[in-house]
Amino acid sequence: MKDGQEVLFYEDGEPIIDGESGDLRFRIRTAPHELFKREGNDLHTTVTITLVQALVGFEKTIKHLDEHLVDISSKGITNPKQVRKFKGEGMPLHTSTKKGDLYVTFEVLFPTTLSEEQKTKIKFILG
C-alpha cells in the first residue's frame, strides 16, 4: 500500500455509549529504510563497487526487503552513477499480483592514491 492510504475496518471501532460501534481506520505511514527508498511502487538503492569491478564486471547480490536475493551482477563496464532497472523487484501493488521495479544506482569507489608502478601499469594497459 502507498504512504497515506487508509484501511477501513467497518464497525470495528469503539462503540458509542449505548450505541453502535464506530469504524476503525488505519492510515499507512512508510517508515524510512537504511538501504531502500520507495517512490510509488518502485524501490531505489545505491550499491558501491570498486574501480576494478566497474571495469571488468562483478558478481554481486543484494538482500531485498523480504530477504530474497537479487542478482545485480555485471559482465561489462559499469559507469559511475549508472542506474540499472530490475523489473518486478519493487513493491507489490495493492490488490494485484504485479510489482514495481527496483532501480540500482552504482557508485564507483576510486583509489585515493596510486604508486608510480601502478600508474605505469595502468598507462600500459589502457594507453
From TrEMBL:
Question: What GO molecular functions are on record for this protein?
Answer: Hsp70 protein binding; unfolded protein binding
Chaperone DnaJ C-terminal domain residues: 1-111
Q: Which InterPro entries match?
A: DnaJ_C, DNJA1/2-like, HSP40/DnaJ_pept-bd
Give the matching Pfam families: DnaJ_C
Q: Which SUPFAM superfamilies match?
A: HSP40/DnaJ peptide-binding domain (SSF49493)
> Which residues constitute the signal peptide according to the record?
none
Q: Which GO terms describe its biological process?
A: protein folding
PANTHER family tied to this protein: DNAJ-LIKE-2, ISOFORM A-RELATED
Name it.
Chaperone DnaJ C-terminal domain-containing protein
Report the source organism: Medicago truncatula
